[in-house]
């Protein structure tokens, strides 16, 4: 395969490079296969990325090589890729906003395998349109335990009038999302912290809300801090740079409730594409403004 391939993506000229480079040595998965995944999953992925300033993990030498965490547009990025100003100290810095397929492919071409986005859009970090709860299993716990806690979180949110959806982190945990009607960031963080404390108070044998690692063995950490404006979470459908290709994949509540083995909710890129083609976007309700809560 030539080192450089010129193509057109939705009318945008894009020079793809080193498509045969192996990015996942354990499976022999190449950069071309990563690009192919993003091209196929884009119809359901892009609505969750648009207007959100993205951050990326780049792996130019593959997942076993050095990684680079980037926020600003990297060298070599085409000028037509949209950016958005993000307040930073005394000024603002521009972040990539992955609003369309050409932009998604341009970043993937730079081996930006993982996409992470905040819970706010445009240049307004002080107002959030999503609540996220990150369930992280401590030592001795696993994804099955996270599923148990996810059901508790879902019930607690429902008591407060919020509806939520679930996806795997692409690693060991789960992410739960609830749509919000543009709520001040501080209020979202306060609510998420109070929710985590409430869950620990009622289920202290299973849940911990404090960040100290010494408290986590045998518990699931309900990480409320992901709602801080400065933080980002792995985007829905993003690849994860594990030993083998993994995806932060949406899952149904039926799958969460019936999970008895972590492997039941571990999906490779081809499986995620097949699920999306069969079921559509399982997280689609997250984008419905009629379901957004005001807290």
From TrEMBL:
Pfam families: LigD_Prim-Pol. Signal peptide: none annotated. Keywords: Ligase. Residues 30-282 form the DNA ligase D polymerase domain. The keyword rRNA processing does not apply. GO terms for molecular function: ligase activity. NCBIfam families: ligD_pol. This is ATP-dependent DNA ligase. It comes from Wenjunlia vitaminophila.
């Amino acid at each position: 395969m030539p080192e450089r391939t010129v193509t057109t993506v939705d009318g945008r000229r894009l020079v793809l490079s080193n498509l045969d480079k192996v990015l996942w040595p354990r499976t022999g998965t190449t950069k071309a296969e990563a690009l192919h995944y993003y091209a196929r999953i884009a119809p359901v992925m892009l609505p969750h990325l648009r207007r959100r300033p993205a951050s990326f993990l780049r792996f130019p030498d593959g997942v076993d090589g050095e990684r680079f965490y980037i926020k600003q547009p990297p060298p070599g990025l085409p000028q037509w890729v949209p950016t958005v100003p993000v307040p930073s100290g005394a000024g603002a810095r521009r972040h990539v906003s992955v609003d369309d397929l050409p932009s998604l492919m341009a970043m993937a071409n730079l081996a930006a395998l993982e996409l992470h986005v905040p819970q706010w859009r445009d240049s307004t970090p002080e107002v959030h349109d999503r609540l996220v709860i990150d369930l992280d299993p401590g030592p001795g716990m696993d994804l099955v335990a996270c599923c148990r806690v996810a059901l508790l979180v879902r019930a607690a949110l429902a008591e407060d009038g919020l509806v939520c959806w679930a996806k795997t982190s692409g690693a060991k945990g789960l992410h739960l999302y609830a749509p919000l009607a543009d709520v001040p960031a501080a209020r979202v963080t306060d609510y998420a912290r109070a929710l985590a404390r409430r869950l620990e108070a009622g289920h202290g044998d299973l849940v911990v809300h404090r960040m100290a690692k010494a408290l986590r063995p045998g518990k699931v950490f309900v990480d409320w801090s992901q709602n801080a404006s400065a933080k980002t979470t792995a985007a829905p459908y993003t690849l994860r740079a594990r030993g083998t290709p993994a995806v932060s994949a949406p899952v149904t509540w039926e799958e969460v409730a019936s999970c008895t083995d972590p492997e039941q909710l571990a999906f490779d890129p081809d499986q995620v594409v097949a699920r999306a083609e069969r079921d559509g976007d399982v997280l689609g309700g997250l984008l419905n403004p009629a379901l957004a809560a005001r807290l």
